[in-house]
Design brief:
- With 143 residues, the chain is mainly α.
- The radius of gyration is 16 Å and the shape is globular.
- It starts with a helix and ends with a helix.
């Protein structure tokens, strides 16, 4: 296995941890300010690892693309790796806005979008990688 093939799997381990922590945080309703700050941090980590894991995977597959966050997501959609790019692109925009929001107002505006549209899209990416890992393990046993 090439280093690029191993790289996406290593990155996925971090993505998986971040994804599970975000899921845990989003299970809390009526967030306190401290909990809201934690959700924001977990969201930022998770979306960063999400697009980077996609980038590493596509590079391992030999796809040629400009490895920026939005282009990575667009290429993942064009390649059929994800079913909808827009929620993930929206997540990048929200992540950037939240990193400069010190009042908490942006999070309150974005929270429904994160819960209802973005988190399910991130979960779709997570499930895609679980499937890829499962296929890789099956191939190892058949060799």
């Amino acid at each position: 296995m090439s280093n690029t093939g191993i790289r996406w799997q290593q990155r996925f381990q971090n993505f998986e941890k971040a994804f599970k922590r975000l899921k845990e945080a989003l299970a809390i309703e009526n967030l306190t300010e401290l909990e809201r700050n934690g959700v924001i941090q977990r969201f930022e980590f998770t979306i960063e690892l999400c697009w980077n894991t996609l980038k590493d995977y596509m590079e391992a597959e030999g796809l040629q693309f400009k490895p920026t966050p939005k282009e990575t997501i667009r290429q993942a959609y064009k390649s059929g790796l994800i079913t909808d790019a827009q929620p993930l692109i929206d997540a990048l925009t929200i992540r950037n806005e939240l990193s400069h929001d010190y009042s908490g107002a942006k999070f309150e505006e974005a929270e429904p979008e994160i819960r209802e549209n973005i988190f399910p899209a991130i979960e779709g990416v997570y499930n895609f990688f679980l499937l890829q890992l499962s296929k890789n393990q099956t191939n190892l046993f058949n060799e």
